[in-house]
Each structure stands twice: as C-alpha cells, then as structure tokens.
Amino acid sequence: MWGGRFATGPDAIMEEINASIDFDQRLWRQDIRGSLAHAAMLAATGILTQADVDAISAGLKGIETEIEAGRFTFSRALEDIHMNVESNLKDRIGPAAGRLHTARSRNDQVATDMRLWVRDALDQLDEQVADLQLALAEKAESYAGAVMPGFTHLQSAQPVTFGHHLLAYVEMLARDRGRLRDARERMNECPLGAAALAGTSFPIDRHMTAKALGFARPTANSLDSVSDRDFVLETLSAASICAVHLSRLAEEIVLWATPQFGFVKLSDRFSTGSSIMPQKRNPDAAELVRGKAGRVFGALQGLLTMMKGLPLTYSKDMQEDKEGTFDAVQTLSLCLAATAGMVRDMQPDLKTMRKAAGLGYATATDLADWLVRVLKMPFRDAHHVTGRLVGIASGKGVGLEKLSLAEMQEVEPRISDEVFAVLGVERSVKSRTSYGGTAPANVRRQARRWLKQLAKG
Ligand code: ARG
Q: Strand, coil or helix: what is 150?
C-alpha cells in the first residue's frame, strides 16, 4: 500500500511485530460496515461517481459473504483487517477499489471499527448482566424468608435472609449496568472522516456517515478522534468492576458449597468431581469466575499503561488496545453466563443455613435492642449487659436462649421472660423492617420490584 516510497519489503520479524490481522480480523463486520457507509457518503457528496461506489459496495458485500462463509484467506503480509479487505476488493473490482480510501485513513478507520465493536460489546454485556440479575431476583423471591447468617469480618453478625443476600448482588449489577450504559452514551460519536489526524480537504459529510453507523454525532476534534481510546478504557473499567462483583459472589459460592458451611448445593451441571477423591464435588465454575477476574483487570491495566505516554495523535502502540479488550469482553461474557447458570441451579439447604444463623450469638443485637426498647436502657449500657450475658453463655458453651431467666436476672434484674421471644432468628429478621432491611416482607417487595423492572427490560 506504500510501495511508492519503499525499495524493499519488510523483514520477516518486522512483519511479525507489525501485523495485527491474527487478532483484528474479528473486526471484519465493523470494517465492512464502516467502508460501506464511507463509500455511500463519497457518492452522495459527489466525491466519487455512483458507478465506482456501486462497484465498491457490491465488492464489499461479496467480501462479507466470503468471510461469513469462512472462505476468505487473511494474509499477514497485508498487515491488518483494513488492508486485507481493501486488497481483496482490488482483486474483485480493479482500480476503483483504490478510490475507497479517499478522504480516509486507517487511523480514523480503526477508531471507527473499534467503536462499533465496543458498542456492540457493551450492549451484549448489558443484556447478560440483566439476565444474571433476573436469575438472582427470582431466587431471592423464592427465598425471601430463608434465614441465614449475615457476616461482618466473616464472623456471624446478625441473621439475614438468603433472598436479601442475593438482592445485594442485584443492586451491584444494577450499578454495573449504569456504568455500561454511561460508557455507551459517551462513546457514541463517530471518528470517521477525521482522516489521518487533521481532517480532509474533500467536501465529506461526517454527519451522514455518523448517522449511517448509528452514532449520535461525529466527533468534534480530528486529533482527538484518532488518538482517543477512552471508550475502551471506560468499557474495561466497567467490566473490571463487574468482574469484582462476580468474583465476590463466586467466592461466596465456593464457601457456601463447602461441607463446613453446607449452605448450598451446586448442580451437577456446574460442578466437577475429583479423579482421586470420589466424595468430592468441586465448584470449579465459581473458582474460575473468581480466577478470571484478574484477566479483565489486566486488560484495563495494560491499556492504561499503553496510553499514558502517547503524544497526540495516533501511534502504533495503540494497535495493542485490541487483544486485551477482546479477551476481557469474552471472559466477562463467559463469567456472566456461568454465574447465571450456577445461580439458577443452586439449591440452598434451608435447615443448615437456619441453624448456622443462630450460631455465634447472632441475636445478641436483638437482645440489646430489647433492653433499650423495653427497659429504656441507653444502648451503650444495653451493649454492656448483653456482652456479659454472651460471656456467661459462651462460658457454658450454650446459646443465649439456653440461659435461664434467673441467670439473666443476675446480670440485669429487670429482664423478664418476654426477652426469649427476641432471641429467635426468625423474630430477628422479621423485626428488621427499616427501609432496605432484611425483613422477609421487605425482601419480597424488593424482589418483586426488581422482577417487574427487569421484565420491562
Ligand atoms: N492495525 C492498526 C491498528 O490497529 C490500524 C491503524 C494503522 N495506522 C497506521 N498509521 N499505521 O492500530
């Protein structure tokens, strides 16, 4: 493509380090779509003849069909997707192919292709996150009242319900979707027509190509257009935060599925066995969701580092934006699908969870609250009295509810036997009716609100 200035071809190593076709061939749809829009604009503005553009468009569609059918041979010597397509176009239609690149450069071309790809990726991820929310909200509705221990510091803290716990993830994922949508909104501008960096002397219509490609408007500064990869960074940031959420849920599933916790049983479809220990059922999918998060963060870190020292405008370094991004999106997509599958199949063991909810003096706060409410004690005093009672119970190796009234009255004489009612885990969760609290009625309401919202799409 630049034979005019060069006497010899590239060294083999030069070709190897330079070529991106091995990974950017996945931009073929976007590349052809962008070229079709560019060509149509060149005809509409009279820059090219309609006859040339008809030939170009027919040729591009032929290439599309050939790639789709898997019959296209990509060549490393042709460096990247843009030149592979253009060279094939020349084989098909002859010299008119050479006119397609009028008022365009690979710099604005690749920026456009990448935006189109990332925009589709954002839409697909959003759909998958929504599906995971749905899986979680359905489970949450079914188990709105199933009592389990709530933890802080991974120590039993207060009883909560399983539905409440799952809805916490629905909220996190809602923020993820907000970030994906924000990124999409901000990135939806078309760099095509910025040409190499400075714009072009041809009377192009950038609004026309922007519209044809579904962008809200053309980008406003040609230098920024070809050197900006913020849209990839934002996508990877949103993807990374989402991967954090999936990884945390995965970690909980790993814990819950241990015989020691025994809170959930994973389905055969989402667990594996051991080749040596016949009793084992391993949560490999959850472990991999946890493990793969690092790849997504790595792609973000790699791109941040690659961009930070680049002067305006395009530098070839920017070709390195692709592999990490493709991998991160594919990885997150797989993790979302696996998590949705695990959640849908997961069977909670209600008895075990309920029993665990009462361990570790999880209703101590309920006892303290009772002392405040009924005996009008200041909370700090109630905390102290409750602490002493927990100490006595723990010394005897029993739960709070197993202390006798006499034992309790030794610490605080005004305690009556009404107190025993608040020591049960069910009473505890039922009483947490504050907005956003774990009371089953709240949880049911929230789960239904989500289900309704998700059905609306
Ligand atoms: N393959 C290149 C990339 O992905 C396309 C742009 C090349 N531009 C250039 N001036 N060499 O960044």
A: strand
Give the chain's largest Cα–Cα span: 101
The whole-angstrom separation of Cα 408 and Cα 388 is 9
For residues 81 and 319, what is the distance between their CA atoms, to the nearest angstrom?
12
Asked if residue 438 has a cis previous peptide bond (ω within 30° of 0), the answer is: no
Q: Which of 35, 80, 104, when mutated, tests ligand 1's pocket best, judged by the most ligand atoms within 8 Å of its CB? A: 80
How far apart, in whole angstroms, are the C-alpha atoms of residue 453 and residue 457? 7
CA dist., res. 40 & res. 38, Å (int)? 6
Please indicate whether residue 318, judged by its CB atom, sits closer than 6 Å to ligand 1: yes
Residue type at position 113: D
Ligand 1 lined by 114 (C-beta under 6 Å): no
* Per-residue DSSP letter, 57: H
Whether the CB of 158 sits within 6 Å of ligand 1: no
The pLDDT tens digits along the chain (457 residues) read 667 888 888 899 999 999 999 999 999 999 999 999 999 999 999 999 999 999 999 999 999 999 999 999 999 999 999 999 999 999 999 999 999 999 999 999 999 999 999 999 999 999 999 999 999 999 999 999 999 999 999 999 999 999 999 999 999 999 999 999 999 999 999 999 999 999 999 999 999 999 999 999 999 999 999 999 999 999 999 999 999 999 999 999 999 999 999 999 999 999 888 788 878 889 999 999 999 999 999 999 999 999 999 999 999 999 999 999 999 999 999 999 999 999 999 999 999 999 999 888 989 999 999 999 999 999 999 999 999 999 999 999 998 999 999 999 999 999 999 999 899 899 999 999 999 999 999 999 999 999 999 999 7
Q: Is the dihedral of CA 209, 213, 214, 215 positive or negative?
A: negative
- CA distances 10 to 20, 23, 81, Å, are 15, 20, 18
Q: Which residue has the tokens 């220990």?
A: 277
- H-type alpha helices, 397-439: 405-411, 425-431
Q: What is the CA radius of gyration of the chain?
A: 31
Q: Please state the pTM of the whole predicted model.
A: 0.94
